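tokens incoming
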């Protein structure tokens, strides 16, 4: 049982994502959330006044945690020292290592729900903006010009390929191939390995 308010909110959000991933948005009820999270039904309504609040916060929390994880990975990998093939392989490794459990399926359900419920669209836009910022940061580190403009295309490609993996059970190899095709077209003059700034004398 969670002991602090922050712990309770996290438990509730995790429960919402699992329920959505397993059975869809329509299955989200306060009674089911409470049972899944191990809290009282009153705790659910105390922390989240409406179902809209629940869905919005669940989507934002998932994306915040994912972008934090990917940012840490990008920093640990020293992207300024690797080239496009290695970067694409790294993304493929992350994608291939992401199992489509219920919590990872849930965001796709929530994005579709945002198409039906305009109250969720601002949250969905905020989520994609976070992914765009991360993609632009990675592209910039790789020496790709006009990284901010291309970031949305990269995010759309990754999202689409992940949806395809979810629907078909395919591997992450297609994602790596697609990223390489896009990146090489965007930065044809970038060498296979990009030296660090200090090695270039910058």
């Amino acid at each position: 049982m969670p002991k602090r308010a922050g712990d309770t909110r996290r438990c509730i959000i995790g429960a919402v994502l699992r329920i959505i991933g397993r059975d869809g948005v329509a299955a989200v009820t306060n009674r089911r959330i409470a049972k899944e999270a191990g809290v009282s039904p009153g705790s659910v309504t105390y922390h989240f006044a409406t179902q809209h609040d629940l869905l919005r916060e669940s989507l934002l929390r998932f994306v915040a945690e994912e972008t934090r994880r990917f940012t840490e990975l990008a920093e640990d990998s020293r992207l300024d020292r690797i080239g496009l093939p290695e970067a694409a392989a790294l993304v493929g490794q992350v994608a291939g290592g992401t199992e489509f459990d219920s919590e990872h399926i849930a965001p796709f359900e929530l994005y579709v729900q945002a198409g039906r419920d305009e109250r969720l669209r601002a949250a969905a836009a905020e989520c994609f903006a976070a992914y765009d910022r991360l993609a632009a940061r990675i592209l910039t580190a790789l020496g790709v010009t006009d990284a901010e403009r291309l970031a949305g295309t990269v995010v759309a490609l990754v999202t689409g390929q992940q949806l395809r993996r979810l629907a078909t059970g395919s591997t992450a190899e297609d994602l790596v191939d697609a990223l390489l095709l896009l990146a090489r077209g965007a930065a044809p003059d970038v060498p296979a390995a990009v030296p660090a700034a200090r090695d270039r004398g910058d």
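note: The longest helix spans residues 51-76.
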